[in-house]
Every structure is written in C-alpha cells, then in structure tokens.
Amino acid sequence: MVKYVQGVLLFDRKNIDAVEIEKVFGPQAPNIIGRMKSSVGSELSDEDMAQIRLLASQIQQIWKLRDEVEKYEVKIAKEICPNVSYLAGPELAAKLVAQAGGLQRLASFPSSTIQVLGAEKALFKHLRSGSKPPKHGILFQHPLVGMSPKKVRGKIARALAGKIAIATKADAISHNFIAEKLKVQFETHANKIIAAAPKSEGGPQQYGQPQRR
Known about the structure:
- It is a single chain.
- The protein is mainly alpha-helical.
- The chain folds into two domains: 2-68, no CATH class; 81-201, Serum Albumin, Chain A, Domain 1, CATH 1.10.246.90.
- The protein is 68% helix and 0% strand.
- The chain contains twelve helices and no strands.
- The chain has helices at residues 2-10, 18-25, 29-38, 46-80, 82-88, 90-100, 103-108, 111-115, 120-129, 143-146, 153-174, 179-195.
- Helix 1 (2-10) runs antiparallel to helix 4 (46-80), helix 2 (18-25) packs across helix 3 (29-38) and helix 5 (82-88) crosses helix 6.
- It is elongated.
- The chain starts with a helix and ends in an 18-residue tail after the last helix.
C-alpha cells in the first residue's frame, strides 16, 4: 500500500522518472515503466492528476501522523506503566490501560477480567445465550497468544493475564520494577504449553520476544 501511494505520486506518462521509480520499486521498476509506456488506458487531465496526487499526499500525511502518535503512545506507556510495557509490549500496554479506563482501574481488575478485556460483546453474548465464553480479548495481539496453536491460546492468554495483573499493581501501587522476572516466568510457561500442544495444531514451536507489528 505504501509503494502504491508512492507510485501514484510518481506516475507521469509524459515525463517518466526512471531513477525515482527504481528507488521505490527496485527490480520491478522496468516492468512498471514498460506498463506505463504501453498502457492503453485513457489519459487523465492535469486537473484529475492533481486531485489524485493531492489525495495520495494526504494519505502519506495521515500515515506520518499515525506513526508519530504511536511513538508518543509508546513513550507514555513506558512512563506510566513500565512493568506492563516491558511484559506485554508498550502498544498492548497502552491499549489495556485505555480499555480499562486508566491504570488504577486496570490494577483493580482480577486476571480473569484482564484476560477478556476487549471481548465484552462476546462475553455478554455468553452470559445472555450460553454461547462459548471468549478465551481472550486484545491479549490476542501478543505474539505468544496470537501465533500459538488455537487450542492453547486460552491457556496462554490466562497465563499472560495473571502476570499482567501483578505488573499493573506494581505500576499503580508499589512502583517497583519487577517485569523482568515476570516476563521470563510467563514466556517459559507459555513455551511449555505450546510444546505440549497436539501435533495436529502445529506441534511444539518456540516463539521469540514480542515484536512490534
């Protein structure tokens, strides 16, 4: 999508900038240039192209703003809840605090509530109709939950929620940094659960440190 928008900004059949196109598309550049020259599509007016480029430029600005907001979100999360940020990743930590309505409120939740934060609709449906209860909410975004075999995701989400419940209390009350130990304990336990998963579900598999999406 990023390259597509960049390509729109570079598109000009009358003045093809091969150097810039190659910078964006690399080995695909010759093929793209060839298509630009041989396309039987109708010519767009200068006014049409100006509007298209304006839209593409605005999309780039929105992406830039999004990246800046995410960086700020990470910075604030590390300051407000360093334990949860280290344990679950700052992006997920920020979402948990926002979903709970604040760090103090998150710290008051039992691990069972933390486990299903973000899955309230599924939880209410379970309470009303007796459907299967949700096994996780936004904790699914943690790599060790989302990338694990389906049958054990609930167990891993429960283990993560338990450690997050401890980490939030440290952030909100004691302000002691205890996340390193919690993270090692969680990842060790999670990998044991994954290793014991049925072979049909992908078999034993090790996952590394949580990575930014």
